[in-house]
Every structure is written in structure tokens, then in C-alpha cells.
Amino acid sequence: MEKPADWLELRPEGLFVKPGGFFVDPLRPVARAVITHGHADHARPGHGEVIATPETLAIMRQRLGEGAGARQRPLPYGEEVDLGLVRLRLVPAGHVLGSAQVVLEHGGCRVVCSGDYKRRPDPTCAPFEPVTCDLFITEATFALPVFRHPDPADEIARLLHSVELFPARCHVVGTYALGKAQRLIALLREAGWERPLFLHGALLPLCELYEAHGVALGDLRPATAGEKGKPRRDLAGEIVLAPPGAIADRWARRLPEPVVAMASGWMRVRQRAKQRGVELPLVISDHADWDELLSTIREVQAPEVWVTHGREEALVHAAAGMGVRARALALVGYEEEER
Predict the structure, then answer these.
(1) DSSP letters of 205-255?
(2) Which of 95, 197, 316, 338 could be disulfide-bonded to 264 (CB atoms 3.0-4.6 Å)?
């Protein structure tokens, strides 16, 4: 059996699969790229051929336009394709719509590149599917023991309680446009919020894309600004979702006495919430927390783990304590999102 280190290579462009002639989530334009999901730090423009799930390709087309790839090759979950000497398939990662783990088989060895993933239930995307393997390449966004995410239903309950307490104020929630916004909407619907939800214009196109792929989100309305200098009094008692940058912008000043909230795993860190002027931090993440990272490593039963995209050192140390060979990839170029 060939060792993964013999056929996986770190290059300036990113992780290169030598016997297949392709990169996984490359940082720079390449001839052939396999993309795990549509977030901008993984799905970059300018590649020749792009292989991804149909949903991810749709997201890339919407966000990148002509930069989404000269040739797009959809690969639905579970289907297999041979690229050079490598057999490739994509399985759900549970991160956002269309997100996938990349399963590579070559020389009697199986490698799983997880991309970004979460383990909590999410009605807006397919759930994470653990795959036993010889090498597991895992993210480490929240790979510190301090990050133990609460039940998202409890965080939504806190938001709805605040709405009840302050009926004359608008609640504006900062949320990432892809994945987090749609999940928040679904969580609010599950919690019984049947009224319209108001969205900043930057969030609407991806919500429409989700609905086109069968994800029902209910009554969504644009939270257009009111008359210059005057707040929209009709939004009192309502919930508005907006990109994180918008909640500190002049746009938000036209909302009636807004209660500023933010939905992110980083809201576990009080200083971050304070710096952003967040009155109601909601710890809701689309990534695995510390305990879930460790349980996933156990579940996939890989004797070797490579760690990237976050707090590599702590997870490498913890994996070694579990008897797993572990190393940090330290890939550069990934951006921190409001996760």
C-alpha cells in the first residue's frame, strides 16, 4: 500500500494529488480543481476545470460568474469518477448546501479531505457522513477546548425571548450569506416563527438559490432602507438578517432602535462580541466544535490525521494523545469568516 505522503504534495497553489493531476480547494488558479464547497476561501475563481457537487457549482456560478471555471463537471454525492490513477467520490460534509468531503483512493489507500464540516443537524444541507480511511485531513477552526457549542435551539430561544422583551425594537442579526443565513431561517421556522423574516439585499440571492434546490425558507422580504434619515417603524418587533459588515453600517441606523445580534461560533469569545458592538451574541456555528472534532477523528478510525485551517497545534497534540499520527499542514490563504 502506498503511503499518502508519497502521492499528496503541498504546493504554493495548495494540496496537489499527484497521480490524479488535480488540486483540492486550491488557493490559486489551476488547470483542474476539486472544490469542497462554495465559501470564498475554498471556491476561488480562475480555474480551468472545476469538479464539485451540482449545488456547489451553482453557488460558484452565482458568486463568481465567469470566474467560476472554464469547464464545470458536476459530481453528485456518492458517484465515482477516475481522475488519472485516483478514484474520486464526494460525500456530504454537513457544512452548507452542497458541501462535500473528498474521498480519494489510490494504491490501496483511502484519503478523506474533509473540507469544512459540522456534526449538528441542519435541515438546509445533507448531514456529515463519516468515512473510514487511512488518512483524514481535518479542519481545525474551533480546535480549542474552550469552543463547545451550545444547542442552537437554545440560542434561537434566547433571540425570540429578546424579541418578546423589546417589542418596540428591531432585532438585526449579523450572519454570513452562505449557509449561516439559511440555517438561521430554518432554525427560526422550527422554533415557531411563522412571521416574515426581513433580509438585507445581499442575503436574498443565495436564499433564492437554496429554495431553487428544494430548501423551503418561508416568507422572506427585503429589508430595504426607509426614507433617508428616518427609521422603518414597520420593522419594530421584527427580525432582520444582514451581513456582519452591515450591522455597523449606516444601513442599520435606519432600523428602529436595533438590538444588534451576531450568529457565529466566535461569539463564545466575549471580547469579540464586545469589539463588534454585539448586544446579543448567538453561539451558532457551521463548524465542528472541540468535542466533535475529537469524536470525528475517532469515528473515521484513521491512523493518521493532517490538520489544517485553524488551531492546528492543539488538535495535533490531542490526536497524538489518542494514538493517532498527526501533523499540521499550515496551509496559508484561508480567511476567517463569521462562522
Answers:
(1) HHHHHHHHTT-----EEE----STT---GGGTT-EEEE-GGGGGSGGGGGS
(2) 338
pLDDT in tens, 266-288: 999 887 777 778 999 999 999 99
- Cell for 296? 470525528
Q: What is the CATH number of the domain that holds 22?
A: 3.60.15.10
C-alpha cell at 295: 469524536
Q: What is the DSSP letter of 287?
A: S
How long a stretch of residues is the chain?
Answer: 339
Name every residue whose Cβ is closer than 8 Å to that of residue 128 and which is 6 or more positions away in sequence.
92, 93, 94, 101, 117, 118, 119, 296
The three cell numbers locating residue 223 = 429589508
Question: Scanning the structure block, which residue is given the C-alpha cell 476561501?
Answer: 41
Q: Nearest 5 degrees, angle CA 61-CA 250-CA 254?
A: 105
Q: What is the pLDDT of residues 198-244, one digit of tens each?
A: 999 999 999 999 999 999 999 999 997 556 656 677 899 999 999 99
Q: What's the CATH number where 273 sits?
A: 3.40.50
Q: Reply yes or no on whether the pLDDT at 333 is more than 60.
A: no
Dump pLDDT digits (tens) for 21-34. 999 999 999 999 99
Give the E-state strand segments of 28-93 in sequence order: 32-34, 49-52, 71-74, 80-83, 86-92
Q: What share of the chain is helix, strand, coil (3-state, %, to 5)?
A: 30, 25, 45
pTM of this structure: 0.94
Same structural domain, 187 and 221: yes
State the amino acid at position 280 in one-letter form: L
In a domain, 338, yes or no: no
Q: Which residues of 270-309 are buried (b: 16+ CB within 10 A; e: fewer)?
A: eeebeebebebbbbbbbbbbbebbbebbeebebebbbbbb
Residue 113 CB contacts under 8 Å (≥ 6 apart), including other chains: 15, 24, 25, 36, 101, 102, 104, 137
State which residues form the domain around 170: 152-282
